[in-house]
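Retry 2 of 3 after timeout on previous attempt. Resubmitting structure tokens to design endpoint.
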């Protein structure tokens, strides 16, 4: 019998050569499309984070919004979006991070969290860790305590989870991939 994590992993689709040749894209769409696997995925997170004293869930644009908002609802917590630059209408604070060629930034509203609030940050995957680290830095700049960084997938071979841990933030991922293939 499969564990819940194995059940979810079996439904993650690998798309070769997308978005460019040589990349094996891990697609969570099938997990979300199937009601049972989506429920199992959410339940994995709910069971991990219930009764942990969290105040908020921060979801990273865009797929972190999907699981993060459902998890916040299930745990009776607030949800905070961490958006790509230029997407939020109110006063924001931004954090830049490096991409393979250039840089990008994520933003939050300046009043998104209160000092001392315990926040879980979540995204669909951790690759190089740039987006997750930027989100953690934003939350910390606003005074939040980031209790953990969570993801559905950790591409361990890209060492992003190591970069996240280097911030002092623990990492939890439902599924890990040790190699590209």
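Retry 2 succeeded. Sequence:
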């Amino acid at each position: 019998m499969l564990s819940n994590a194995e059940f979810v992993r079996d439904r993650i689709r690998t798309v070769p050569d997308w978005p460019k040749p040589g990349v094996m894209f891990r697609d969570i769409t099938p997990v979300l499309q199937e009601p049972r696997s989506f429920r199992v995925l959410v339940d994995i997170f709910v069971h991990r984070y219930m009764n942990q004293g969290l105040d908020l869930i921060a979801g990273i644009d865009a797929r972190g919004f999907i699981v993060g908002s459902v998890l916040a609802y299930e745990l009776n917590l607030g949800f905070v979006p961490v958006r790509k630059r230029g997407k939020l209408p109110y006063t924001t604070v931004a954090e830049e991070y490096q991409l393979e060629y250039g840089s990008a930034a994520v933003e939050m509203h300046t009043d998104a969290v209160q000092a001392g609030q315990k926040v879980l940050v979540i995204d669909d995957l951790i690759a190089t860790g740039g987006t997750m680290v930027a989100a953690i830095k934003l939350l910390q700049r606003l005074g939040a305590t980031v209790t953990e960084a969570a993801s559905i997938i950790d591409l361990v071979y890209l060492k992003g989870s190591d970069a996240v841990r280097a911030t002092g933030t623990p990492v939890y991922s439902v599924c890990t991939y040790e190699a590209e293939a």
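Attempt log closed. The mean pLDDT is 96.
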